[in-house]
Amino acid sequence: MTPRLFAIALLPVLLTACSTVQNLPLMPGGDREETVEPTSDNIALHGWRIVGDDILVVRVPSNGCTQKADLRANVRQRGREFRVTVGRTREDYCRAIVPDGVEIPFGFEELGARPGANVTVTNPILD
Fold this sequence. Notes:
The protein is built from 2 helices and 6 strands; from the N terminus they run αβββββαβ. The protein is of the alpha+beta class.
């Protein structure tokens, strides 16, 4: 077999391998026991934290072009608790290598919560 024919025969196998890497299962986050499947309305995050008493910072996966305008925060209030789910409004098709993602801040005011409120993120967390 010539090298050219070998390369042509190997190409579909390599392309198939690339497409399956993106579909690996993601682990749910937090201490919740239910399985949470990520979707465009509920993306898997690298993590989240509260800064001070009025800023939620989420670390989202990025290929280099993710901005706050590409995300939306769905907020549900349960009594004194605010549950935030972060989703994408636009996919990031850039090709930069950003293994730890990017941090995007959300002020409690824009989430409809007062400073010091109990805010929890419901998105699954990547390992």
